[in-house]
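Hey, I was hoping to borrow your eyes for a little while. A protein chain has come my way and I'm curious about its shape. Take your time with it, there's no hurry, and the full record follows here:
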Amino acid sequence: MAEITEAMEQIFKGVLPAITECGFKPVYPDGADKSKAPVTEEGNRYTIEYSGENKAAKIEFFNNKIALYGANKEGEIISSDFVQLALSLFEPDVANEKDIRYITNDFTDTLVENFGTKLVKPTKSKLPAPVSKAQAKSGSVSYDPNTLANRFTAIYPQLREEYKSNCEKYGQFLPEDFFKNYGAPLVVEVIKKNNPTEMKRLFKLFNEIYDDGTNDTQSLITVTILGSLENNMELLANCTDYMNDDLTVAVINVNKFLWSNNGKGARMKLENPPKYKPKKQKQSIMSKLGQ
């Protein structure tokens, strides 16, 4: 799979300064070319490993996701000691330089946060974990607003920092604030452009999350995001070829109501979502494990 090995080569080079600063060295298999990234392949899983004194890290790609893991322990470190520190959706066959740069920056910040050698480091709130596709399809858990935001910002990494800032500012994810101010305006622009490839990618996400999402998550899609189309028939028509039947009916009805005289009160609530006080920030995962 040439695309993923090339992408991991770029990520490897991008995080190398942080890896060195944090006291790690790449782990090369015997006889490997040390001028290249030490990517090992097992099935459909691609891994780069790093070792340090009483610590280890690894970058792993599997099932269109790329993650950074870390471990901090005296003595031998085994697979069960690793903790997931960062995760992004990643499709190497369509990824561009901006996607690679976002992942590199995210992994760099996370490495320094958890393994940096400075005595005093700023702490950040850990991003809430998204619901996996397997969990949602099994019916054990429904997609929540955070999962929608997590996967949405994987498609549009230019909003990833706004998503992270939202979580850090409030000590939790405040979805109405994020999607009203950042997500919905971007979606409207995408729908206006009506590029088939981008529309298909966006509504594939919306369809999946809507079908297996909580009521709050469905409301975010139909009201907060797609309700901002203001019942514009041209923009709604752009969407109908990409939405499934359930989402189509919901979006059309929401737009018809919101932008009628009877929907004025609902629009006012939508434009002024409730505010919450931020919670105290938490220590990094590796700081806790080192205690």
